[in-house]
Structures are given as C-alpha cells and as structure tokens.
Amino acid sequence: MKVAYVTPFDSRTLSSSNNWSGSGYYIAQAIKNQSVFLDYIGPLEDKFRLKILSKCKSRYYKLFRKNYIKYIEPLVLQDYAGQVAQKIRGNRTDIVFSASSDSIAYLECDQPIAFWADATFANLIDFYPAYSNLCEESLKTAHRIQSISLEKSKLAIYSSEWAAQTAINYYNTDPKKVKVVPFGANIEIRKSINEVKASIDARPTNQCKLLFLGVDWFRKGGDVALEVAKQLNNSGLNTELTLIGCQPPDGELLPSFVKSLGFIGKATTAGKNKIYQLIADSHFLILPSIADCSPIVLCEANSLGVPCISREVGGISTIIKDNLNGKLFDKNAAPIEYCEYIYNTFTNYTQYKELALSAFNEYESRLNWQVAGKKVRELLTSVL
Description:
By secondary structure, the protein is an alpha/beta fold. It folds into two domains: about 1-185 and about 370-380, Rossmann fold (3-Layer(aba) Sandwich); about 195-365, Rossmann fold (3-Layer(aba) Sandwich). Helices cover about 40% and strands about 15% of the residues. It has helices spanning about 25-30, 50-60, 75-90, 120-125, 135-150, 160-170, 195-200, 220-235, 270-280, 295-305, 315-320, 335-345, 350-365, 370-380, and strands spanning about 1-5, 35-40, 95-100, 115, 155-160, 180, 210-215, 240-245, 260, 285, 310, 325-330. The strands form two sheets. It has a six-stranded parallel sheet with strand order 2-1-3-4-5-6, sandwiched between helices. It has a six-stranded parallel sheet with strand order 9-8-7-10-11-12, sandwiched between helices. Strand 1 (about 1-5), helix 1 (about 25-30) and strand 2 form a beta-alpha-beta unit. The longest helix is centred in the C-terminal third of the chain and has 18 residues, at about 350-365. The radius of gyration is 22 Å and the shape is globular. The model has no long low-confidence stretch (mean pLDDT about 95).
C-alpha cells in the first residue's frame, strides 16, 4: 500500500515547527513501521499574498476584539489542495492520508481520502482560548470546512470517543466512517517490564512526588496541582511538586516543596532524557486540565509506569481509565477530592505499585504507536 501523507509542516523530522508537538512525525513513523510506503506531501507552501490576507483579516477583527483563525482561510486551504493534487498526480498513490482534516477539505483526487485528528472544530470552539470569542466569519468557515472534509473523506479517525461522537452527532457524519484510535506515547525507546518495575521500586515511600508538565499554567490546571500539593503537605503527607514547562504568574511565591524547572525542550537527546527521568522518578503525573484534546504526556507517563491524575474533559477519558492507569475528576471537583485519592493510594503502597504496573500495561496494550499504527493500517486498507 502506498500512502500520500499530507501535513502542512515537515513531518520527516521532529525539529520542524508546528509539528503537533512531534505527533505528526510519530504518526508517520507508526504507519511506516507497518510496512506501508509513505510518500510525504509536505511541508505545504504558505503563499506570501495569502499570508498577507490572513494577517490583514486578523488585524481587522482585533479592532472589534474578535479572534480570527488564520489557518482555515478558504483561499489558503484551496491553495493547499492544489499543491497536494499536483504532488500526487501520476504517483500511483493508493490513498491520501492527512494528519488533520482541514488540509484536505478542498482536495479533488481519484484516491480515497482519510485523516486522523484529535478534535472537530465543534470540539474546539469556546473550549480553547484561541477558539473563543471568534468572529462570525471564522465560526461559519470552521464549521463549513469541517463538514466538507468529513463529507469528502472515506475514513475519519479520531484519537478519542469525545471527538468521534461530535463528528457523528454535530456534523451528521455516517458513523460507519468514523473510527477511534488513540495516539501513542512520543518516546524513542520502549522500556521493558523489568525496567519499569525497577523505576517503581526506586521511588521513595516516605515522600509523594507529583509532576506537573505543561506550557499553559491555567489551561493545564497548574493552580489546582499546586493547591493539591499544599493540602497534601498540610494533611501530613510529605509531598514534592515538580513543575516543567511553565510556572505560576509573576509575583506568586512558591513554597519550599515546589521545584520549578522551567521549560525543558525535547529537541535534544539530553532534554528528552531529562524529562523521561523526571517522569520515571515521580509517583503521579498531575494534569488537571480545564481544556485538552488528547494530551500525549499522559501516554508517556504510563509508558514509564506512572499513573495520571487529571480531569474528565475533552478526550482524556479515552486515555485514562479510573483505577487502571490513573484517576479522572469532574471539572468542578475541589482539590480535596484529588488529595483524598492520592493520599489513600499512596499510603497503601501495595495498591500504588499495582496501579503503577497497571498504568504500564495500559501503555503496552493500547497507548503506544505500534498498536495505533497497526490499527490505522487496517482501517486504511479497509477503504481501498
């Protein structure tokens, strides 16, 4: 099977910008590792005159304190479609497969079209800050583009049931063409069960180590993570909170039990290894996001035998299953509810170790790119 893999960015490397935090690259690798020939159709060129048009529209709507989504400008997407059509012409490609739904919305070709995404536009609107307070033009365009891409595609794969159900219910998409395949963990080397057991055994039993990893303090729930750590310490459980990626707003003093390490990039081997070691040393990854689609860091934590504490928002419930690889809380849950779960699990350390090993099993059985790639290959083959 020969697949034309469409991405606006360069998915051949992890170093390219706007690469879905590396997921565009890992999707490609997952499919290639299933003995699929991948023809990279990307990066796509952003024409200068169209970039100017988008910038002008964005500035215009800011005068009215409205947000405009540049990347779904129809003229840009029509130009993308023309570039893709030209690149696949005469290539004997079996299927066109995109790492998002918008890049193929206007594509006209003889091959079947499929995509793999983490959300529909209906999921994103008023969910993420960048998709809030949209101008009327962006609202109408976003829904129109989504409808066109779903109608045109033979196969719409989503990383969560949350996104898949929205495609069906909001956009009236045929349920037969909508499938769910969770993303995998963006890691280079898979640990063995013995290595993970050793990591779990090496964690201290007299101190609970929490890790918060995110670049958006409020959206990722950093304020809740900090309050949970405070209350756990006040309850008598010695707790350390490590922050990676961001920190509280300026002026907020951090208690002595908080280690703020700032941003650690994954572009270098040293950076990746440092993050993985910090995860492996932790008892829980705590990410009480108020808005998230499919945060891959949860899969990465599970790959190292670390259970995850998060909120039941977006597509997170497809990744985290209560008492299998972590615990999800209602979006309105008070910090004390998080504390009670962590305290009860940690103070019954046999139970904690069982949960940590179960988290690794969830990664091994369904939250890795090998499993995901195999399933996607089967789905792509089914529409040929």
